[in-house]
Amino acid sequence: MTEIYDRVALIGMGLIGSSMALALRERGLVAEISCTSKTRETREAVAELGMADQICDSPEEAVRDADLVVLCTPVGTYRQLAERIGPELKRGATLSDVGSVKRMVIESVGESVPESVHFIPAHPLAGTEFSGPRAGFSTLFENRWCLLTPPQDVDPEALKRLISLWEAIGANIEIMDPDHHDLVLAVTSHAPHLIAYTMVGLADHIKRVTNSEVVKYSAAGFRDFTRIAASDPTMWRDVFLSNRDATIEILGRFTEELFALQRAIRTGDGDHLYEYFTRTRAIRRGIIEAGQDTPAPDFGRSPSHKD
Amino acid sequence: MTEIYDRVALIGMGLIGSSMALALRERGLVAEISCTSKTRETREAVAELGMADQICDSPEEAVRDADLVVLCTPVGTYRQLAERIGPELKRGATLSDVGSVKRMVIESVGESVPESVHFIPAHPLAGTEFSGPRAGFSTLFENRWCLLTPPQDVDPEALKRLISLWEAIGANIEIMDPDHHDLVLAVTSHAPHLIAYTMVGLADHIKRVTNSEVVKYSAAGFRDFTRIAASDPTMWRDVFLSNRDATIEILGRFTEELFALQRAIRTGDGDHLYEYFTRTRAIRRGIIEAGQDTPAPDFGRSPSHKD
Fold it and tell me: Do β-strands A145-148 and A122-124 pair in parallel, antiparallel, or remain unpaired?
């Protein structure tokens, strides 16, 4: 493939940053990759894995002469990062990110971006429950959505170029309003994560059921929650704090529904329960039909493993 | 393998009943299997799939001369079923079940069981989100737990025989107090299912986010909830109504924890969130170490499928 950008700077080399580096290199989409990371440990891992051409000690250094700069750190770091790199950005460069919230990113980063730079926020819906550069892999974005929330007056050429980069590493693109993005993600991602964290934390707190019992009998439903409740704590702390209003709105709605079902259980209203559960089953079918999951029964993902 | 029972009667041929039939036959563990099912459609499917030696129109007929009778219908049907089959049970036979709750089963079935019959409730922690005889498969119970809640004065020989049957089809056995069973399952299964049902139902109700958006972006976390929220509505209605007290207790605790996290989000208490999320990550590690799930990153289970 032909190179889409000459020089790309990746700020932060966790799961997403390192997977981008691997995907861009493998497909020859950029001439040069510079990167940086807060900890020496990560920089050394990136060097060992040969993921970048230049591993810089500071973000200021990493973004110098870059045509595309992508923030791949937890969103809570963006404001300060933008203040530091703003003055160093090349004229005509594009600044983007991979954060899970968009309104707050636009507000915190936007004011530090020089007029000569194209700021196009992005959010690839990709990830696993693992973190750090050693968790990265080049196919992470294949057949995943990447949501872009460009400003109204975005430069069409700059947008096109960023889209072509994401498409070249396998992503499907959708353009979205940032507020709508934050609401949609509160429903499909942020609230589910908080609920999973809550359930797993609760199981840990209940004294009359031991942790070893929880672990042993987790296949009966609980296990499905633990994977997403194992996601990176720093990233998720920042997501909730940065998408506070939408998350709290959805959690409020969730509690309302939960109380209604709880009341049906208490009063023995079986019809209400039956109807509710029949509707949710239909949604699952929709997801399978849309190719977002397989219909294969999942009952442990390790049926041959005898413990 | 040698036969463990001469004649086994399976009442109800859904996912569990049909999987038991297939598992018992494949391993030659019983001489004869009789079965029944409420609907003609299921009985015809069972005949077509050749799962039983005798397919009876009524439970009374199916249990005649059986050495082991297993109730495999939703727990809400147990009381009436027990009243019907009680007088027909053979002296010395064992009556068991596969229900997800145990205290209520003991109460509703117990009083119809003649003194000459051994009543040993059981609960195999196995299943998929599919229902009916066509969803059954002979390896469903391999490396899954089967929890038995026998009465204090159980006949040791009858218990040993039932255990050997479950072990022969691959299950790991644990003996448990019925009330403790119901609490453990409320934590590891019933509350998680209700929470998943709630979240999926909520997503369906929110008008500002379309169902097609929910489906499209479900891979960001929501999808993990939809599988368990696709489980059989009748079965789950009965589970919640039959394990009401423990489920409501755990849901109450859940709401308390959720409110605490919600408050931390509202007040911007990042440290509280970070600490909570770090603890839940450790529980996930426990589950993987116990062989109850694999550490393989799960990011769609259909990475090669382009939609």
Answer: antiparallel
